[in-house]
Design goal:
Two copies of one chain form a homodimer. Chain A is α/β, with parallel strands linked by helices. Chain A has eight helices and eight strands. The first copy, chain A, has helices at residues 16-30, 45-56, 73-82, 99-109, 149-152, 154-159, 178-188, 205-217; strands at 4-7, 33-39, 62-68, 85-90, 115-119, 136-142, 162-166, 193-196.
Chain lengths: 223, 223
Amino acid sequence: MQVKTILLKKSVFENNDRQADLLREKLKQKGVFLVNVMSSPGAGKTTTLINLINRLSPFFKIGVMEADIDSDVDAIKVAEKTGCKSVQLHTDGMCHLDAGMTEQGLNEIGDDLDLIFLENVGNLVCPAEYDTGATMDMMILSVPEGDDKPLKYPLIFQKCNLTLINKIDALPYFNFDVEKCKERIKFRNPNATIIPISAKTGENMDEAVEYFKQRLFNYGGEN
Amino acid sequence: MQVKTILLKKSVFENNDRQADLLREKLKQKGVFLVNVMSSPGAGKTTTLINLINRLSPFFKIGVMEADIDSDVDAIKVAEKTGCKSVQLHTDGMCHLDAGMTEQGLNEIGDDLDLIFLENVGNLVCPAEYDTGATMDMMILSVPEGDDKPLKYPLIFQKCNLTLINKIDALPYFNFDVEKCKERIKFRNPNATIIPISAKTGENMDEAVEYFKQRLFNYGGEN
């Protein structure tokens, strides 16, 4: 499986927020819905995306940009398992993506798509600090990480309007209180939609799929 | 349980590497062995430390510095479960610790200790880029994160001479190849000591305890 790898250059824009707003506007005009996906390393971003894409691809034309410091295993895996357009972004040691870096990826993947997932670097801290220009930010928290994460990493929970709690198939094995975790997420962001899922078994994935369908069908009408 | 929380100030030193070397030398002269503990969020740093400290405290005078962006749950937990001296460091949004920040913590915890664990911010990227001045760097990788992490986060595996593979009690539940993971770690750092453990069940903790005993007994003789 051949997947193109882009080595990202450091952005030259001094004002990332301004750049991000411009990018978001441009995407809106082209009808491209860009989702910035954040999580800890190993929370299951790639498996969740594969599962989501396979369920959403009958309805939308989908692409994926996989950001990593090194390796291209994720982009190859997504391309193999979904057949969708996939690009690997190498951040050259950088711990996050900004709008300029995101735009470099978009230039490669093209804009004839309805929905693009941008898999950010696995990190709960820095990616939350940089606006990528995405239409929406989401995060994936996994059960083995513990239900105390919203206490320790406030900004990412505050910024994301969608949190998927992944690996709920492992709930019997870990000491994770879903209700307590939901409360802690809502404390950081009262508007957050929280969907517990298992990307491995497919449990509750329908609810996540429905969320994206609604968002995309309403995209034209959003502000 | 009362635990002191320090709000860290941004370091003023331009040359962190120089500052870190000076701190390491100072600790050596005082006979304090400082361990910088890094991992993803939720890999089990705090549980592992509690387990290690309870087994090492008959032999050494131990302290802990818990760095987090927010909350003091970890410092309180460690103090309650081990009785050892514990300080919470708030990084004020910063994603890593450097030597100047570490020194602010050390000024609080004091230097009449043999062994201090510094629990860094949960993040596989940025903490690896900053020398804290610690005597050694270690990392904890947990089974649910996946055996591909050494492919994706090269620097942290390269820097750490000790990697604990935690949550091996969950191996039957996850698709994690311990031997493949060891190979990938050794590819990043051929000198790495790798010890699979379960901080939850105590499995293999003796081997980790033995590692620290050896390091501390030889500390005077190290370069």
